[in-house]
Design goal:
By secondary structure, this protein is of the alpha+beta class. It is built from eight helices and 13 strands.
Amino acid sequence: YPGNYEFAPEDRLSDLLLLGGGVLALTDSATAHLLRLSDQTPVPVNLPQVLSRNPEYNLALQPGDKLHISGQTQWVYVTGAVYFPGPYAITPGLRLKTVLLQAQPTAQASLVQAALVRRISKAQQSQKEIEDMRLATDRSITEEALMALDTERMIGRLPLDFIALIEHQDNNQNLLLQDGDQIHIPQLVSSVQVYGAVLNPANLPYNANFTVKDYVQQAGGFSRQARNKEIVIVQGSTGNAIGGALSQHLAPGDAIYVPIKRALPKDRYQVISETISLATTVASLILTILVIRRN
């Protein structure tokens, strides 16, 4: 159980290891260092001798000491509004809910906006770069919404519902954790973002009674270029982009994207321009003929 523990006089290294639940696996590759707050100089620690409580190696602790143990252990990392942030060792069968209960989200934590981000391989990263290049020239409205809302495009973010996991006991959300997983529990952001083709894009205070229409009106209403029948909602809980309706209610942390009308391609502009020019020429010619006949 990595974490911070209260200092008590006469505590020794073995006491700290006991509070931390012990070493997961004492292998030949395991090493440990004690970092003193007074001089920040790492002090090598002989783990087998400390665990056997050999007084020569079982050093007395000082306030602010940090004990770092490295080895072949795999870790998951918890950050944000929790009482016990930091690395958690992965044991066989360790699942998301277990770590959340150990980390203990604070009263200010927002499970609606929590995220599990999984490390991706180089091949997956390369695939994403190729996909981003494609999106630059050929993207759907939902892809356009996600690209415009950069904070929602977490690489490796899994679409999980933390509320369903904790409050509704939905085991489909209770994933097995992998080495390098990052769990982030942010402070509650009681707002809804409105962006895209509105007059005053903004983060607006969340109101449980408001619909998409109300938030858009608070943001100044639709601009002339708005495609107001193709609204997209970016969910704060999962980062997914879904179709939205004016009558739809939202959750804190959600975002509303109003697409902008796409300009006509250049060749279509040319066709329209040439058609208008031709029509004008024909009209002028007809007018000239009529004048000649009258004369």
